[in-house]
Write a structure and sequence with these properties.
Elements lengths: L1 E2 L4 H9 L3 H11 L9 H24 L3 H24 L3 H25 L3 H21 L3 H23 L7 H15 L3 H18 L5 H16 L7 H16 L6 H12 L7 H15 L6 E5 L2 E5 L9 E6 L2 E7 L5 E4 L8 E7 L5 E7 L1 E6 L2 E11 L8 E8 L1 E7 L2 E4 L3 H14 L5 E3 L10 H11 L2 E3 L3 E2 L2 H4 L2 H4 L15 E6 L7 E4 L21 E8 L2 E5 L8 H10 L2 E6 L5 H12 L8 E6 L1 E5 L10 E2 L3 E4 L3 H10 L8 E8 L15 E9 L1 H6 L5 H13 L3 H10 L1 H7 L1 H6 L8 H7 L3 E2 L1
Helix pairs in contact: 1-2, 2-3, 3-4, 3-5, 3-13, 4-5, 5-6, 5-13, 6-7, 7-8, 8-9, 9-10, 10-11, 11-12
Length: 768
């Protein structure tokens, strides 16, 4: 797990190293976390992130020396303001809105001023100054700070004066009346904005030179005084050409010249334009101070996340005052004084989103934020994949201590088309699936199908079934392919983004929750041998989403598709958080999976009941190369569960049996069972029942003994209503049953001391 870009501590260090663009990019990436609808803490955090972005771009603009690049930065600041102003309005963030507005509009004004500086045509420059006046007026009208408001009014008068001067020099001879109006505007501005004093002094001198017939010594002395005042008002780092231009005016005074060459007006105007950039200097200093105060953190927590534990360290705990509230998103994690602690551990913190913001609020009332990315790095063929393991809460009430799972082991035929593995399906296959669903609808809380066994086309019907019967379904898995890409939006949840080209050739397991609007899913991370990108084949695309499902208060279910279960890191992550782990697989030899599951049970990392649901298909596979589509593989679906000592012995005897028939295994797990093994013999950890699945066409095509007689027997068993007749029927046909179904034969071996319903239940089968 790692902190993501908006970590203020990390970004502060990056900024101090001068990597402003990198820090800015991190803040911009973190905005993806904040989605509607938002709660208070998230709103405040997004607000601070936006202000940080504005501040960093503004800093880049200040440090840039190239005019064009500087303009581009100012334009970006203004764009950020426009992009987010609706957010500030929607959530009534008046103060924050004003901060961003001041910076945004101020940046726009500076952009316009640089445009004016670049213009050689006085008319176009006039237009740019008119825009500056308009933008400053916008800020002034909403500014609540009276001191800042007066400063803005001075700036507005300055720009109006500059507009009038540029209007005046458009004529062959500079317009005296417009120049006089400009001097009045500069006079209004000069007390609060010192750079306006430059213009006031210079143009006052020029007007007097134009108006006077003769200059006496007293007038020359007074005008020289004004000229020196103007020079003293120039910014410290000022272009020498400006000072030399002012020197030309002083030379006119020395020789007593009372007429000014029109070119002098134009030259002076061009020089004075170069100080326009400083027009908002004091204003921006004020705004920068406000932003710095707003963003200053009263303390700097450090956040780390691993093994479902959020570790929060306070390097300076004494700076945390009074009661400390910590939230992840909108979930309260901590709410008490920090005291003498410098570290807090929030255990069993299972995320429900890929990224979220941890917020801290102490007695100062200020909010400190640390966004987190909850991904794990998992090694695969192409390097590493960032995998997110996230919980989905779909809890329902607990009606019983038992949780009932139907594990479906069925036959199917796989083939490879391009790099995608598909299942052959027709009406007969669909009918088989439907018969299975119908048979278990009163007995299952969860139905699990093997990997690849359910095609995309069946999912709509599965969703209707799930909603109607209140049953969760893990619908095997399938490859995402072009032909279906446009259909996912209607069926699948898009909380973490719509399905798109980036998802092609992912192997995903649909998880269908009753009454949920859309289908959820888990993605396979690690490819099996037949899925590798070998030679010219693309292979399976590694997934990066692993879902955990909170089905009841006592049932947390993880889904791991086939080979993902064999990866220690992935498995540890899921098994530490879940008490039921579902493993849909199409594997030629599943014994390795059983060995790993048993090892986990025998060497638990914590207390509590745990069960591994191995749903394995019986399949053939054709790829046109090494797999001919004739070899039957797989089988042996089972439950590996926490047991007491005596139950362990019984399970060990069964582990040698690999059943390669079609069946539904109904497993009722006692979620209230804990293996204090020698004291709980009275508790039942698990109850199981096999229901064989028979396909009439397959029985008839088989070379087994008396196929038609076996079909008649199945129908007779189903219709029989007499206990004695049913026992006799089974006993008389024992060899026929054993020939066609060793599983059914094992089920019906001992029928003593059972009433009719129990007998029929032992003989139960699904016939398609």
């Amino acid at each position: 797990m790692r902190l993501i870009s908006a970590d203020a501590t990390d970004n502060t260090a990056i900024i101090e190293m001068g990597r402003i663009d990198e820090a800015r990019e991190r803040y911009e990436q973190s905005l993806d976390i904040y989605t509607e609808p938002m709660q208070y803490v998230t709103i405040q955090t997004k607000s601070m992130t936006i202000i940080n972005i504005v501040q960093l771009i503004s800093r880049s603009a200040e440090e840039e020396t190239n005019r064009v690049k500087k303009q581009e930065y100012f334009r970006e600041v203004y764009a950020v303001y426009n992009r987010h102003k609706a957010f500030f309005t929607r959530y009534d963030l008046e103060y924050e809105h004003q901060l961003v507005r001041e910076v945004g509009l101020g940046a726009h004004i500076r952009y316009l001023m640089l445009n004016a500086e670049a213009e050689t045509d006085a008319g176009k420059r006039t237009d740019e100054y008119a825009k500056c006046v308009q933008e400053v007026r916008k800020i002034t009208e909403t500014e609540g700070d009276e001191r800042l408001r007066e400063l803005l009014l001075s700036v507005m008068h300055y720009f109006e004066g500059r507009r009038l001067i540029n209007e005046a020099i458009k004529f062959e001879l500079p317009d005296k009346e417009l120049t006089e109006q400009a001097v009045e505007e500069f006079k209004r501005a000069k007390d609060r904005y010192k750079h306006a004093n430059v213009c006031y002094c210079i143009y006052t001198v020029l007007l007097e030179l134009e108006s006077a017939e003769v200059l006496d010594d007293a007038a020359v002395t007074r005008l020289k005084g004004l000229l020196h005042t103007a020079i003293d008002s120039l910014p410290e780092k000022m272009d020498e050409t400006i000072k030399s231009a002012f020197g030309e005016i002083e030379l006119l005074l020395e020789v007593g010249c009372v007429k000014v060459d029109p070119d002098m007006f134009i030259k002076l105007n061009r020089c004075i334009t170069k100080i326009d950039y400083y027009a908002l200097g004091a204003y921006f200093t004020h705004v920068s101070e406000k932003i710095a105060s707003y963003l200053k953190e009263p303390f700097r927590p450090e956040v780390d996340y691993s093994d479902w534990t959020l570790k929060i360290t306070f390097p300076e705990p004494e700076k945390v005052t009074d009661k400390l509230a910590i939230k992840a998103g909108d979930n309260v994690l901590f709410s008490e004084p920090l005291g003498i602690r410098d570290t807090i551990h929030i255990e069993k913190h299972i995320p429900r989103v890929k990224r979220e913001v941890v917020t801290f609020t102490d007695g100062t009332g200020k909010t400190v934020t640390r966004p987190i990315d909850y991904s794990d790095e998992v090694k695969c063929d192409d390097g590493y994949v960032d995998v997110y393991t996230l919980e989905h809460d779909c809890r329902r009430g607990i009606a019983s201590n038992y949780f009932n799972i139907a594990i479906v082991q069925l036959k199917y035929h796989l083939y490879k088309e391009g790099s995608a593995i598909k299942v052959r399906h027709d009406d007969q296959y669909l009918n088989k699936i439907g018969s299975i669903l119908d048979a278990v609808k009163e007995e299952a809380d969860l139905i699990v199908f093997p990997e690849f066994s359910i095609p995309f086309d069946y999912l709509s019907e599965f969703k209707r079934y799930s909603d109607a019967n209140g049953i969760v379904i893990v619908a095997g898995s399938h490859y995402v392919i072009d032909a279906n890409l446009g259909k996912y939006g209607d069926l699948f949840d898009s909380e973490f983004g719509e399905f798109g080209e980036k998802d092609l050739l992912k192997n995903i397991a649909p998880v269908i929750i009753p009454s949920s609007k859309k289908i959820l899913h888990t993605e396979k991370v690690l490819a099996a041998k037949v899925e590798r990108p070998l030679f010219f084949e693309e292979g399976m695309m590694p997934g990066n989403l692993n879902r955990i499902f909170k089905l009841r208060d006592d049932v947390t279910c993880g889904v791991m598709i086939c080979f993902d279960f064999l990866n220690d890191d992935l498995r540890k992550r899921i098994t530490d958080a879940c008490n039921i782990i579902v493993v849909p697989q199409s594997n030629p030899e599943p014994r390795r999976f059983y060995g790993v599951g048993k090892m986990e049970i025998d060497n638990p990392r914590g207390a509590g009941n745990k069960a591994y649901i191995m749903a394995s298909g019986i399949f053939t596979f054709y790829d046109g190369e090494t797999n001919d589509g004739k070899t039957i593989s797989g089988g042996g679906s089972r439950v590996i569960q926490t047991l007491d000592k005596d139950s362990h012995k019984k399970q060990e005897k069964r582990e040698e049996m690999k059943i390669t028939e079609q069946f539904v295994l109904l497993s009722s797990l006692n979620m209230n069972f804990f293996a204090a093994r020698d004291t709980q013999q009275a508790q039942t950890p698990i109850r199981e029942k096999f229901i064989p699945i028979f396909e009439e066409e397959e029985i008839i095509r088989s070379k087994k003994n008396k196929p038609h007689d076996f079909l008649v027997l199945l129908k007779t068993i189903e219709s029989c209503e007499d206990r004695g007749e049913l026992k006799e029927l089974i006993e008389d046909n024992e060899s026929l049953i054993q020939a066609h179904s060793p599983l059914m034969h094992a089920n019906t071996k001992n029928l003593e001391n059972m009433w009719l319903d129990k007998l029929k239940n032992k003989c139960r089968a699904i016939v398609v």
